[in-house]
Amino acid sequence: MNKQHVWTVVGLVVAATGIGGSLARAAGPASAPATRPEFEPPTIQSCWDDLLAGVQSKEDWPRRREEIRRQFLELLRDQYKPTKPPLDLTVHETVDVEGIYIRKLISYNVEADERAHAYLAIPHGLQAPAPAIVHLHGTYAQGKRQSAGLEDNPEKAFLDQFARRGYIVIAPDHFVAGHRIPPEGPYETARFYRKHPNWTAVGKFTYEHSIAIDVLQSLSEVDPERIGALGHSLGGQGTFYLAAYDSRVKAAVCNCAAPTFRHNPRVLDWSRNRWYIYFKHLRPDLLAGRLPPIDTHHVIALIAPRPFLEISALNDGNWKTQQQRVLMNMKLLELYQLLGVPQNYAFYVHGKGHAVPHDSRQLIAAWMDIHLKPTEATRVKLLELGP
User: Fold this and answer.
1) What is the pTM of this model?
2) Are 187 and 152 in contact (CB under 8 A)?
3) Residue 252, beta-bridge partner list
């Protein structure tokens, strides 16, 4: 190739890469700078921003948290809960499950005239106090039997799944399911409201789930500092209400829980005039278009800085409502960032509907292992190669 050809090739390369243009501009007269596109992302604003109203720093959060806590207890009508009776824990049945764990049917007092029933799983071969889980089932008539994998969908059998992972697990019946199905039918709350006209069904199940923690802490096999909670659907709602209510919950996971008050076309479902009534006292306000002063994001915020994982599906109910849930989660992650523990909050959104698919179950197990098991249980390491 002669010298002329070499320069021709170089000229083509320079032109193709734009270098020639740069050189030409450098050699020629100064030209106006090219217009540069704007890459700065806009600030996302949403109705969930009220969570951090008046909060500019980590030091501002305790005051805001106390305000939210007061509103939360008012929503539950916690002042109307009964005096907590002695547990009087009784074992009714003991079954060895495949040589892996013992499953006990137990009962204990939750009111002076009411006893809750639950399954309790204790793995074989424990060498020291172990982490424990409160598993809360969804809207299923024989709730704890679903948790234990004795009927219905085994994907929701978290007592069985976590007992096989070395956890002690308690799975109580919801107060209108299992051993305590009312004569009117599963999840009928009319009888409850006749007994406790000023309380709420959500306050009742939150209070009872807190007593399930009392049961766990009464057991020598349980490490009282490593207790978690998880649930699906109604049990998912029960999980974040419990973790907000009781700081003994050190890590929690909510899967496909009930929707929010805001941006919810079915908001009246929170205070129906039949069947399962979450908050009976809210009905006049909801009918008038007035929402409670707090919503789901406020309740979950009370869990901070403790670890919390929220799993939901965009196609679980109203699509736009679930899109708002994503924005809600972003605001909660902002709170955890403000508190210096962003690693303690996560959310996962999928398109598999109101379910507990394999990927969700794997995330739930990993979340609990990371936060409730010793560090060495989840640590990875390089192979030690021989000479």
Assistant:
1) 0.89
2) no
3) 229, 308
